[in-house]
From TrEMBL, chains A, B, C, D:
InterPro entries: Aldolase_class_II_sugar_metab (IPR050197), Aldolase_II/adducin_N (IPR001303), Aldolase_II/adducin_N_sf (IPR036409). Belongs to the aldolase class II family. AraD/FucA subfamily. This is L-ribulose-5-phosphate 4-epimerase. Residues 22-201 form the Class II aldolase/adducin N-terminal domain. The keyword DNA-binding does not apply. Keywords: Metal-binding, Zinc. Its cofactor is Zn(2+). The keyword Lipid metabolism does not apply. It comes from the Bacteria. NCBIfam families: PRK06557.1 (NF005123).
Length: 231, 231, 231, 231
């Protein structure tokens, strides 16, 4: 299943692939640092700029053992284009997202505890924190139950995100997928998703969180997307 | 937006600024160590002794990437006076506190999980632990819901802290602000706030914590503020 | 109680023992990393290929102080065959499993928090997460209450696992035992057991998790056991 | 308040003091590692063999800054005998325990989250885990509410532990004190106390843990105290 980079991709793309393998490899360490993953259950991918390709974690490899070289390259149908190892078993879902959402440059999947707990009940996370309004612009929605092995998960992700500002979707009885303009933004969304999933869970354990007015959610979202950070 | 230290501040102040940038930079690591912050959501500031200035975290910069040089200097209206980066998006709130509470030398803001959960319900944390009587001298109060972008958050902090001994205030649906005589004291208050927010939450999950008599809270607070530590 | 390896085991077995002591020693660090053990409460063992022997943690030794040499060798009755230290107090339970389940090459025991909480109520963990279907193929069952000191624990483990696909069993009021084809697989099962025990607990705190259809559990289990990872 | 070791203690005791300062200093790192302490709230002490003295943490010093030299020496009335710093504000409670329980060689105090939550409700932790039977031989009892500043806390600890096998006592609205034959045993009791406080809390969140028969608790306790570990 392996082929050399030189035969599959042009040399200008080869540089982009090398840089992306490096950054996607490093971003998996953020999933570990924030406690979003146990053993090997969670993965980051990134679209190769200027090519119908993305890079993704190999299947079942421990985070300690990941190296840039171990990150595999797939085409947008999820077929292996370059790499020594079999791609993540979630590759088809990532590929579906890249095929159908051209603005997406990074995808992350985890089974992080609190997000997955909401997903197990099939319940959207209500937007009751300003940090959640900032990052998600509203509730974090729930997608359908879907089996692995075909396009069902990818289709569920794309259909559910349509009509929400949230870059995160809880897949029923499963876990969370997040998207971003690049892999780092998708990792940030995964970190923030678990953070707000936990805080809202804890809030609800002892009563009902107060609502935030929809107009205020809009104001917070607009400001955060346009003013926050370094420009 | 950048100007050189030498033109903006006198040389005696320049030394104070350099020392404060160093300590405020280092104190952000305590927010990380105690798990009070996810990604870049949380910041520490410190008033420059002998000047109408304070230093604060730059906006959206990862804690790993903070250096003393990256910490920015602002005047008490929150305008950037020195530094290469845009100040924290919470700068206006910090500035308001420094303008209105002259005894305050440090301010911290986090979205720490348990404190934010109480804030999401708009519920003050009752003083049912001796450690809470020691540090907070009573309940940790809740301030109003306020949007970012003007003085509303700062005004809410100052108005709520007035009449409480607590150096921490829960801002509704948002998170926590703490104050101290210096940035280290404000960080300590943020750490202890989350610690007691969590313990009281856990206690209440299985019943009602026993009250501490107000006179005992007073005795504990007086002793801790005057006897504890090295003098 | 000590005897030299050369007199007890053949030289071809000696190499297998040395390699296994090394890997079993290292695998204890995974119990620490995932927070499954406090102080010295938890142990990993591994069957020696080609011999009626297994290696196991010595009793009451801190994880920091474990070295490959400190790992002891026992026969399948749990008697010490090689090593300077007394074997784990759970050795009889491990030995029983190796005697009665020839396909098992590794056993792990922990008191990990969430798994032990289900065990304290004597309640099986329902299979409401796809990750749980993948790894456990159904609910994680509960075995009987059993005292340490004879074969009762081992007998309870083996009797309970019979008729389940789960490599984990919750022992009532006690903790969890997991099995695997090798020690690493048993450690993975212990990590995943705590992960799903926690997620399902959190899900149930605020309502009822949605069920997964038994046929879907079968499909997920079959796929994960045969397709996941590198082959 | 400082005097030199040579004038206060004989030279044979001086060696014991030096060794104890070293080990008590190191044991504080275990409180940090197991998450039992926030900021400076928690302390370890150890009785000096062959002298009416004990060593203890200085007051308000960060765990990062502790060194063997910073650990102070007190007499059994809690008066400073040797050291540059003021002793822990909990010194009177430790001293009371050493005066009244001659078999005790180590004392630990923390505000660890789950133990303190039971203490805030004034509720003993029921013995529903075999690990709890092993280490505590029954429930972990609750002592009275007591203010700091005189012998009330020490008296409450000693009176409550009398008639229990537990080396841990929950002090109402406060935290936990543990005792042991040496400081390491007291630290172990503090670690195990929080571990079982958390597991039993989690178990009770979703129902009622099953009881363990008193005769089985006795059997487990007797075995663990006499057989476990290296002898």
């Amino acid at each position: 299943m392996t082929s050399s980079v030189s035969s599959s991709v042009t040399s200008s793309v080869a540089g982009a692939v090398a840089a992306l393998r490096e950054s996607v490899c490093r971003l998996h360490a953020e999933l570990v640092r924030y406690g979003l993953v146990a053993w090997t259950a969670g993965n980051v991918s990134g679209r190769v700029p200027g090519a119908d390709l993305f890079v993704i974690k190999p299947s079942g490899v421990s985070y300690d053992d990941l190296s840039p070289e171990s990150i595999v390259v797939c085409d947008l149908d999820g077929a292996l284009v370059d790499g020594e190892l079999a791609p993540s078993s979630d590759t088809a879902a990532h590929a579906y997202v890249y095929r159908h959402l051209p603005q997406v440059g990074g995808v992350v999947h985890t089974h992080s505890t609190y997000a997955s707990a909401w997903a197990a009940r099939g319940e959207a996370i209500p937007c009751v924190l300003t940090a959640m309004a900032d990052e998600f612009g509203g509730p974090i929605p729930v997608g359908p139950f879907a089996l692995i092995g075909n396009d069902d998960i990818g289709r569920g992700i794309v259909a559910t995100l349509d009509g929400h500002r949230s870059p995160a979707v809880l897949m029923r009885n499963h876990g969370v997928f997040t998207i971003g303009a690049d892999p780092r933004a998708a990792v940030k969304a995964a970190v923030m998703c678990e953070d707000v999933a936990r805080t809202v869970h804890v809030a609800r354990q002892l009563g009902e969180p107060l609502p935030i007015a929809p107009a205020d959610i809009d104001r917070l979202y607009d400001r955060y997307q346009n003013v926050y950070g370094q420009h």
